[in-house]
Amino acid sequence: MKILAINGSPKGTESNTDVLVQTFLEGAREEGSDTETVYVRDLKVTPCTGCFSCWTKTPGVCIHRDDMQEMLLRIRESDILVLASPLYGNMVTGILKNFMDRMVPLSSPAIEKIGDEYNHPARYKDGISRFVLISNAGFPETHHFEALKTTFRQLDSGPRAGLAGMICCAAGPMLTTPGMRKHIQWYLDATRQAGRQVARGEVIRDDTQAILDRSLAEDPGAYAGAVNAHWRSEGADIPQGRASVPASAEEPAQLIDSDGVGDQVRDLLAQLAGVFSAEAAGDLEAVFQFEIPDEDPGHYFLKIGEGVCGAYEGVHASPTLTIHAPAQIWLDVCSGKLDGTAAYMSGQYRVSGDLSMLMRFGSLFSSS
User: Fold this and answer.
1) Which of 135, 197, 220, 238 could staple 202 via S-S, CB 3.0–4.6 A?
2) Is 135's pLDDT higher than 60?
């Protein structure tokens, strides 16, 4: 079995799409398949001009002399074709669509009844017998793929190949988020299993497809908040919410510097105030409120302003960001045992308010 994967992501090997493609192909190789990946961004593919010379003057041969000449031969030599792309405008990327448009020489100009409908028959008897769609989207919900899926279901009725399955991964950025691998391993396992099934000449089985139809984001709201915080930190103008906490009549007393080793969040915050980076903060004014349910009293905050940071016990009237976390989770995040972004996106703690502050936490406190 020879499987040819066409990756239409502009990011090539560094893309979320390629994580899925390579995982799928790993499964296929476990069944003895010969696999190859081609990155469209590395090819010279001139747009189709719609002249139909490949149907009339030079049957099966395009007027353009570019990399598609070789690619059409490689498609004909393959048993399975994987078309992979991030979701762009509810469809594939422009470069992959251009590639697909240039596959028209593989079809005959005749319109014939194939099955229950009329279509162009295949020009050649050899070539792919099945194809697979692989895609991912930045959205946390799976319904965003419906237009893309409809298009590929329509291709399933064509002359060249049958659809073996569709792997459409919602919340795709989690595929390359540091520290997230163990939280999304269930999806990668299903993707690898799909590769094994297709390599055996099967379609993706219903139980495997059911897993692949799930989103990586268990909490769409938390995921959206993290994504918005990322783009805000990159300079995008995205409105931010505020934390909703009870107002205190006056600011509590500052925490006394801890002599402990940070085995409680209270001690840790006192230490963090001592390693605060005024250079990283610049003119930042912010309050980090911590709600730690398994500590007594469990209400603390770090207040940053005028180049200094103070650690306090109590509830601030208007925090910039509020972190709700079990003590051990936040201790592990600050010690580096647990990736903060991965822990948040997997639901191990919650935040409210300006999530861009969460992205800056590590730079503000050098020991975090």
Assistant:
1) 197
2) yes
Which domains does the chain possess? 2-217 (3.40.50.360), 242-364 (3.30.1050.10)
* pTM above threshold 0.85: no
Give me the percent of the chain exceeding a pLDDT of 70. 92
Q: What is the mean pLDDT of residues 260-265?
A: 69
Which is higher by pLDDT, 171 or 236? 171
Q: What is the 3-state secondary structure (H, E, C) of the chain?
A: CEEEEEECCCCHHHCHHHHHHHHHHHHHHHCCCEEEEEEHHHCCCCCCCCCCCCCCCCCCCCCCCCCHHHHHHHHHCCCEEEEEEECECCECCHHHHHHHHCCHHHECCCCEEECCEEECCECCCCCCCEEEEEEEECCCCHHHHHHHHHHHHHHCCCCCCEEEEEEEEECHHHHCCCCCHHHHHHHHHHHHHHHHHHHCCCCCCHHHHHHHCCCCCCCHHHHHHHHHHHHHHCCCCCCCCCCCCCCCCCCCCECCCCCCCCCCHHHHHHHHHHCECHHHHCCCCEEEEEECCCCCCCEEEEEEECCEEEEEECCCCCCCEEEECCHHHHHHHHHCCCCHHHHHHCCCCEEEECCHHHHHHHHHECCC
Whole-number Å distance between alpha carbons of 129 and 1: 11
Lowest-pLDDT choice from 16-20, 144-148, 231-235: 231-235
